[in-house]
Design brief:
Helix content is 58%, strand content 13%. The chain is α+β, with helices and mostly antiparallel strands. A hairpin with a 2-residue loop joins strand 5 and strand 6. Helix 1 packs antiparallel against helix 2, helix 2 runs parallel beside helix 4 and helix 3 runs antiparallel to helix 5. It is globular, with a radius of gyration of 25 Å. It binds zinc ion (ZN).
């Protein structure tokens, strides 16, 4: 995700903070200091840090279980509305997806239990808010902090049980449906239910005073469910399609000594974004459009060998496009070299995949199949 800062690493996962999160922190400091002084501002910051530690632990719960099932997790990003764990592939078995999904809210149950022990130990210092009420305000001492965190974790558990995709409850619903239905059908049902619930959130949030945040969350769920629905239809179309069928077999390669000034015109002349760097028939690296454009502004004489990336994914002509597409989505790699043994035989690009999807959705594929 753009505009994020890496603050730590845990279990090989980069922990990132989105800059809007820092804005939220700044806003609390400014508001609280003006209203009640530096002490209140400090407790406000403590509350936000503690809340997002709970969010982070929730995401780590998902991630660590995902890793146990062989799903790579590249990063966790904290946003003001929650956390996002970037899984580099999609769990294949519904049972695995259920375990990965349940692990998140389970962490909140454990945190809640731990905090509840503190409450039982000091019931006169820690306020307890029964049921699900709105957070009464920022805490002013440690007891208040524990009390509010109990409420926060209760909300996180409740929210994640709502079957609105892409929240955990919706993922759980999809995984359960996927035991009987094809994956794309299960996703379609789960995302539709997600959008209906999002609509209810938006209306309730707009009508009831003090619940504006619910409307904002509703909008975000609605958009995310729509995007996931489209991605899932695309994945369904790509099912059983081999890379060799849709890759580009004709492309430009560059040598390690090619300069940026040599390569840049090919971006518009040949319509190619990323260039394989090849020497003696061997693939050395990938020179991306972003690297070319950035270097072109400063020093056009820089060589491909200095600017290319060597950390990228490759595929084979007989691999499934759906799997490669998932990797492209999460890694941001737009061009994947296709290798037959040591030989570079083609490029699979997002453009190939989108055009193939357009072709299949248009009905042209059915006509050409009938002919
Ligand atoms: Zn979750």
């Amino acid at each position: 995700m753009k505009w994020s800062l890496t603050i730590a690493r845990a279990f090989g996962i980069r922990i990132r903070v989105h800059f809007t999160f820092l804005l939220l922190m700044l806003w609390v400091v400014v508001e609280e200091r003006a209203a009640a002084g530096w002490g209140a501002a400090a407790w406000g910051v403590a509350f936000i840090v503690a809340t997002f530690t709970c969010v982070l632990l929730h995401e780590l719960g998902h991630s660590v279980v995902a890793q146990r099932f062989g799903v790579k997790v590249s990063s966790i990003t904290l946003l003001p509305i929650g956390g996002v764990a970037a899984l580099r592939s999609i769990p294949q078995k519904p049972a695995h997806e259920i375990a990965i999904t349940v692990a998140g809210p389970l962490v909140n149950v454990l945190i809640f239990a731990g905090l509840y022990v503190i409450y039982c130990w000091a019931p006169d210092r820690v306020p307890y808010f029964p049921g699900l009420v709105l957070i009464p305000g920022l805490p002013m001492d440690w007891g208040g902090l524990i009390g509010v965190l109990l409420l926060v974790n209760k909300w996180m558990i409740a929210f994640n049980l709502i079957p609105a995709y892409p929240m955990d409850g919706g993922r759980l619903l999809r995984a359960i449906l996927a035991r009987w239905l094809p994956y794309t059908r299960a996703t379609a049902i789960a995302t539709t239910i997600g959008q209906v619930i999002a609509g209810i959130f938006i209306m309730y949030g707009l009508c009831k005073e003090g619940w504006t945040l619910l409307a904002v969350i509703g909008v975000l769920i609605f958009l995310a469910a729509g995007a996931e629905g489209k991605a899932s239809r695309l994945r369904g179309t790509l099912q059983d399609v081999e890379v060799g069928k849709i890759m580009t077999p004709v492309f430009v390669t560059v040598g390690p000594d090619s300069t940026v000034d040599d390569c840049a015109p090919w971006i518009f002349q040949r319509g190619q974004d990323d260039f394989p760097v090849v020497a003696d028939g061997r693939l050395l690296g990938l020179l991306t459009r972003d690297a070319v454009l950035e270097a072109a502004q400063r020093d056009g004489s820089r060589r491909a060998a200095e600017l290319m990336t060597t950390d990228f994914c490759r595929t084979r002509p007989d691999a499934q496009v759906a799997g490669v597409y998932d990797v492209m989505q999460t890694s941001g790699q737009r061009t994947v070299p296709v290798m037959d043994g040591d030989q570079l035989v083609g490029l699979l690009t997002l453009d190939n995949i989108n055009r193939y999807f357009m072709f299949r959705s248009s009905g042209a594929a059915r006509k050409s199949a009938q002919a």
